[in-house]
Sequence to fold (367 residues):
Amino acid sequence: MAKMINKTLVLTYIYLLIYILLSSGVILYNKWVLSPKYFNFPLPITLTMIHMGFSGFVAFLLIRVFKVVSPVKMTFEIYVTCVVPISAFFASSLWFGNTAYLHISVAFIQMLKALMPVATFLMAVVCGTDKARCDVFMNMVLVSVGVVVSSYGEINFNVIGTVYQVMGIFAEALRLVLTQVLLQKKGLTLNPVTSLYYIAPCSFVFLSLPWYVLEKPNIDVTQIQFNFWIFFSNALCALALNFSIFLVIGRTGAVTIRVAGVLKDWILIALSTVIFPESTITGLNITGYAIALCGVVMYNYIKIKDVKAIPPSTDSLPDRITKDWKEKNSSDGGSPRGLELNDEEAPLITSRLSHIGRTQLGTHTAV
Fold:
């Protein structure tokens, strides 16, 4: 029995390590590819479209060709009312988040991402999925003050990059809330593969509009280097990130996920200063980020306490979701494949996890 527990614990830590490495790696890789100082591919929309095209293609192969995963029953009405709006905000969050890499450092972007709980809470209150509460509001104020202090201490502060990143955060927050509202309303359940199958192509189409206006006229084929293996490995890492989060949430609880998210942010900030020496961190940066993190930790504690206040079930949250997914697949005649979760390049997340694991796992954004 002890050996079984140790084996499970080891596997859990391995999955957490894989998630942290992939999540950090995708962000650093994107920064390296986009930065004019390094690979010099300053086309964030094009890079995001490559990710979406690759993810959609792999999902198509797994569902339609190799039939590894069973498709869900998707009606035109559900696609138009659920998938399309979610895809629009998902595409926007990726576009804004990746564009920010051209103007500000990875370290500062991670500090700004501490605003994610604030944005999510505000969008949830506006959309009616959460109630305005004094305790949560005070945490949001603390987070906001921390981010302002951190921004004030940023040596290479750039207004354009900051605006893009904040817009990406709010687009992602609205996507999360819409996902909860729309999927809960329609009772739609998607796993990581089927979510990519439906969301990625639609996001690709949305991204093609700003690409045609903003990037196509400025593309000079003679000056832009295109290395197949660079873009293939970059897109592959983004795809692998989806599945790593699937493994993490399936094996860990809310507390572990949030701690892993905070740990990943600190590791990413430290790594970015090593890989990109031009990224300078000041004492005021760290002080502001620490203040913001205190607010984030307190917010996480409140949300976890809220979840624990819900009448307990005999199954754990991952077990319940897995059970629901198995039952749904059985009724559809398919085999169970797992549950639906995501992070920076992950289009959908189940509404039952949206207030538990996503705030720290989904920072974006940018991937």
Observations:
- Residues 117 and 340 are 21 Å apart (CA to CA).
- The radius of gyration is 20 Å.
- The mean pLDDT is 81.
- The longest helix spans residues 2-34.
